[in-house]
Design goal:
The chain has 167 residues and is α+β, with helices and mostly antiparallel strands. It has one domain: Aminopeptidase (3-Layer(aba) Sandwich). The chain contains six helices and seven strands. The chain starts with a strand and ends in a 9-residue tail after the last strand.
Length: 167
């Protein structure tokens, strides 16, 4: 079952994010890796900044989460994670399909350029990588991230909105 997460879920979201993010360790640049990958303070800041998490629940237990954040004229899919032992079971697909129904705005996704599995997942769900120039502009406009993360990331846009961004 997919449901909107609430403040009581924050500790579980924190666990899921940091469990699943282990896939990035040794893949993304070392200077971009943190332990834990996302601190509780950062998670709470993201929520305060408007990221609404949705979770996939089985038998009353969250096993995957994905956030949606409206920023100006777009919606961002943020922090998409599924517990390591439940990966490749369709949970991420169900979450992204659900989140796509929650907005009529163009949807953007930022992820690490080295996370080829994530890029393939988003492409499978109708997203396309934008040009490097558009990526840099979009990351600086809609995200609040370091220049190092801008350098090492990609942006994907849903195919129906690709022309909207002039790409």
């Amino acid at each position: 079952m997919i449901r909107e997460c609430n403040p009581n879920d924050n500790d579980i979201i924190f666990e899921i994010v940091n469990d699943a993010a282990q896939a990035y360790k040794g893949v993304i640049p070392d200077d971009c890796w943190n332990e834990p990958y996302m601190s509780k303070e950062e998670l709470l800041h993201e929520i305060k900044d408007g990221v609404k998490f949705w979770g996939y629940e089985v038998d009353g237990k969250l096993i995957g989460v994905m956030g949606l954040q409206d920023v100006d004229d777009v919606s961002l899919i943020r922090h998409a994670y599924v517990r390591t032992e439940k990966r490749n079971t369709g949970i991420g697909s169900k979450l992204i399909t659900h989140l796509k129904t929650l907005t009529n705005k163009p949807i953007l996704i930022g992820t690490w350029a080295a996370a080829d599995w994530a890029i393939r997942f988003y492409e499978k769900h109708g997203f396309k990588v934008v040009s490097i120039e558009d990526k840099d502009n979009l990351l600086r406009k809609y995200w609040n991230i370091s220049e190092r993360q801008v350098e090492t990331s990609v942006v994907l846009v849903d195919r129906k909105s690709f022309i909207f961004f002039g790409t």
